[in-house]
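Box S1 | Example of a co-folding query
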Amino acid sequence: MALLPILRFPDVRLKKVAAPVTHIDDSIRKLAADMAETMYEAPGIGLAATQVDVHKRLIVIDTSEDKSDLRVFINPVLDSLEGSQTGEEGCLSVPGIYDKVERAERVTVHFLDLEGKKQSITTDGLLAVCIQHEIDHLDGIVFVDHLSQLKQVRIKSRLVKQSRVTA
Ligand code: K1U
Ligand code: ZN
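Box S1 (continued) | Returned holo structure for zinc ion
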């Protein structure tokens, strides 16, 4: 397995819309394993392929406390969104920034698993938030895009300054 570099906001590659996975083979299974390792090492509870500069519709999520519930979603599609919840979000591509975002409370998503089998789940709470956050990444949307224009400008300038210091 390998750790993959994570793109940082405002990198324009985070705006790319990812393409569906057409064939699930060992290269996709290796990508999922590398993304899981990268997510756990960060540490984080989710990661979209977009964030590691691979523009395919694949996400990994583990919202458990003990890394015991790894989920891989290939070509995830939201079928229904119900209710609303507002909670603090972070993002491995926007380090050090946390803010409140409104999301649906309960979602149903269908997707393919690593064997190419069709799956569907209905879930709520943190897993539902994480699924929406990661599918946003596949559509080129970062959580700061849900914030006010003023906050976006401030976050961008803070991260650009930070990247100059660490370069
Ligand atoms: O997509 C990402 O950048 C991952 C992101 C997922 C996420 C977090 C919070 C709400 C919605 C989606 C993260 O994992 S940020 C880090 C984080 O939340 C965390 C890190 C360590 C322990 C617990 C949580
Ligand atoms: Zn993110």
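The first helix runs from residue 26 to 41. The pocket of K1U (ligand 1) is lined by residues 43-48, 89-93, 129-130, 133-134 (CB under 6 Å).
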